[in-house]
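re the bet — no i am not wrong, look at it urself. input seq straight from the record:
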Amino acid sequence: MKASDVLEYAITDFTSSKFKTMMSSLGIIIGVLAIVAMLTLGDGLYSGISGQFGNLELDTMVVLPMSLTAMSGQGVAHPPAKLTDRDVSLILGTTGVKEVYPEITVGAMANFKGENRTVAVSGVVPQYEGSVKAKIDKGRYLSASDVNTVVLGSKIANGTFSREIRTGSYITLTNPYTGVSQDYVVAGVMQERNGSILAGDPNTAIYMTKAGIKALTTQDTYSYIAIRADSVEDATAVADRVDNALSSIHRNEDFSVLTQKMFVDAISQVFSLIKTTLAGIGAVSLVVGAIGIANVMMLTVRERVKEIGLMKAIGATRTDVRIIFLSEAVLLGLFSGIVGVLCSMLAAAIVSHFAGLGLAVSPTNAALGIAFGLVTTIVAGVYPANQASRLDPIDALRTE
């Protein structure tokens, strides 16, 4: 039997009973819809979370004066490392390190025009802030001689207080624990910058020199040291080299070198697991649909016993009959998969409109949905097709 004849025969039977076809495909349509919708939801959640971190700079890392292993109870706890200029110099001399940004961070109460807000204050070393200086929006950046001078993150200058803070304005910062206050003049305002998992949102911080922050805290060691590697590809190797270098001077002190890539990989793994779980939930509908299709096709075989007997009597082989029934299963799976994907696209558009989420069915998820639909119907059609091919033509023609 020619391939064109098999296809024509399968299409004729597929379209002869539209109600039976629709009811047979309904379970697969729902299953494909569920799988694609779940995968799309997983993608949307990942994109939404990733968007909170801005454009992740995978060439960055940070040294923290604590051990995450010890904190989790998996290691021996030691005193926290005291990060000083000696560590900064050591890191700068490490192969692959491009830039270093040591900071002392404290919380403070900011007062501007009678309004109080809780803010983060960072004491920086201007000589290490080469690339940061170029991101000034208004005024100027800090110089080494500045003491009672600050530079504001973009959101502090415009959005934190009811009035916009301009350069030349004065802002009062108070240590909430000691009550010590200090007036600072605003020298500049930073451009809007991308946040990071490691260092947080730079737009919501107030920056001053290490000398200037002494009015708010007695801390003279760095809260963390941010590092930028020469390249993204070399970031992990640079982190290992920095860890080895610092281990030589902090033998009995806790510290950690964390890369941005560690967090991104962890997030990716978590959301891959979520997507797989959601897809598995959707696959249950496919299993139910496959059982329904297998039942319908078995009934179809019984209804068409004489027809099958006639085909075999005029020369159709077992393989021909098997291919005809499997072709019908393929058509059913293809139709169900396409309809299921279209329904998932419609559902994603509706959810995006009313929930404000950026959900869109990707080509990969659409292809997976159609593939799942095809595989499910083919598997469900194998047994009925084999049963049909094994019918004896004489017994089939005698059947009433």
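see?? The first strand starts at residue 60 and ends at 64. told u. also The longest helix spans residues 260-303. so pay up
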